[in-house]
Amino acid sequence: MHVSREPVDDTPHVVIEDLAFRRGRTTVFEGLSMTVPRGRITTVMGPSGTGKTTLLRLIGGQLRPTSGRIWVDGLEVARLSRRGLYNLRKRMGMLFQTGALLSDFNVFDNVAFPLREHTDLPEELIRHLVLMKLEAVGLRAARDLDPSQLSGGMARRVALARAIALDPQMIMYDEPFAGLDPITMGQIVTLIRRTNQTLGLTSVLVTHDVVEAMAISDQVVLLAEGRVVDRGTVDEVRGRASEWTSQFLEGRPDGPVPFHYPGTPYRDDLLGGKESRT
Amino acid sequence: MMDFLAGLGRAGLGWFAVLGRASMFLARVLLSQDAVLRRFSLTVAELYSVGVRSLLIIVVSGLFVGMVLGYQGYITLVNFGAAEALGGVVALSLVRELGPVVTALLFAGRAGSALTAEIGLMKATEQLSAMEMMAVDPYRRVFAPRFFAGFVSMPLLAALFSAVGVVGGYLVGVGLLGVDSGSYFSQMQAVTDWREDVVSGVIKSVVFGFVVTWIAVFQGFDAEPTSEGISRATTQTVVVSALAVLGLDFILTGLMFGDL
User: Fold this and answer.
1) Distance (Å) from the C-alpha of residue B127 to the closest C-alpha of chain A?
2) Is residue B234 part of a domain?
3) Which of A236, A158, A210, A205 is nearest to A40 (CA)?
4) Is residue B8 part of a domain?
5) Are A115 and A166 in contact (CB under 8 A)?
6) To the nearest whole percent, how much of chain A has pLDDT over 90?
7) How close, in Å, is residue B128 to chain A by CA atoms?
8) How far does B133 lie from chain A, in Å, by closest CA?
9) What superfamily does domain A37-52+81-256 belong to in CATH?
């Protein structure tokens, strides 16, 4: 298990209590409760479509829960005014799956964007800070490129530099490993771990790449069908693995999550088809 | 029959829902207008991309519309021996109707579609979400300056369209067809009333500028975040703007000149 720098404050950074979220008639979450410890890497895993990204948007206050409560840093997100929410977000970074770099700006200006928006620092100092952040992700020399000239992995690294530009206390990664080649994936894994260690950041990862996530996580939360199926340290989850958990972790095609879409038995369907033609 | 009625009802409800969302959106954009002054450099950049970049199409179209008016006006007027009145005809047609309406239609095609596509793309690539998560309000950073730029540019472009159109009419009427240069301008001055004609035209262009920019920015904001969604929203901007401009033109003309 990976060991992070010991946090000073041991209250949880994020507390989610009995969260329910519905979109139209679809229930995304029902009775979901979990905590994210400060200064650690927490990974939320689950099959596609379990609302992992939605969970990040709820924590970031971009969506409001149908019921239940979410506290970030002791503040209840849904009750904050816009100003309060924006102040909270300045202490929060988010890495989007696509990087979400601003297409009007080059790499340098993208990383400088939050600094220019939220601080009155002189341009000279902004230049230093931006180069420091870009150096940390290994892209200092790419500062004049446009987002369209970057590969997927590079865009995510620039986005990471931008997310840590304001030195947040917490960072959320939305599917950071999706669609990357092994080398780039290794680079991102290293960066996430290093960012967590050197800055003592609370990190929340949402992914279904089991191997990479297990390698760097302090805590794992498994989601399925809108609730927490299992949670604990990597070893704990591996140790007591329920049938569902082990199917997910080992990537077996059939098990509690069936390969076949639920329906009438195959035999009945075949015979039924024959009967209907005669 | 019931299916048809149900479909009609659903479509109607859908329209009201869109109108509601668009109104909420407009309210927030208007409440964010103080950002236009605070971040004046952003506003200037938008004025450039929305206004200045539309200049070419507006000037060229204005010139041709004016030249056609010169021809058509002359052909009709000369039958009554009133060719000297050409300046008045050209100026009135442009200032009252063609200036605001044609400019608004061209503006929707050039600047409106570009605004929709730009904002739609920002939405589809999560740039708007990313801004929100960086504690930057997209209403103040993205929508307010664009809305203001469109609203201000459109009346100026319409005025330019009319001015260039008058020159176009002059080139054809005086240069080619031999109308007297002095009569062309004196007729224009005699028949064009400041309040009745010029102010009415300006009011129209202000209203069209407001509506077209609102539609364009909202369509981008409301676009489905996919490639098809963006292309559909861009088409919608041009179609809805054109219909809104022509419909409003009828209503405004009725209000302004109805009692004459």
Assistant:
1) 5
2) yes
3) A205
4) no
5) yes
6) 30
7) 8
8) 6
9) P-loop containing nucleotide triphosphate hydrolases (3.40.50.300)
**Contact check, Cβ <8 Å, B129/A89:** no
Instruction: Search chain A and give the residue with CA nearest B126.
Output: A100
Predicted confidence (pLDDT) per residue in B198-251, tens digit:
999 999 999 999 999 999 999 999 999 999 999 999 999 999 999 999 999 999
Q: Which residues on B lie below 8 Å from A93 (Cβ)?
A: 133
Instruction: Report the alpha-carbon distance of residue B33 to residue A167 in Å, rounded.
Output: 30
Q: CA–CA separation, A140 vs A150, rounded Å?
A: 13
pTM of the model: 0.86
Q: Verify whether the Cβ–Cβ distance B130 to A62 is below 8 Å.
A: no
Give the domain range for residue B106.
32-257
* Number of domains chain B contains: 1
Strands lying side by side in the sheet with A41-45: A92-95, A170-174, A202-207, A41-45, A219-224, A227-232
Supply A277's token pair.
């033609």
The answer to whether the Cα torsion of A263, A269, A272, A277 is positive or negative is positive
Tell me: the pLDDT tens digits for B34-85? 888 888 888 999 999 999 999 999 999 999 999 999 999 999 999 998 888 9
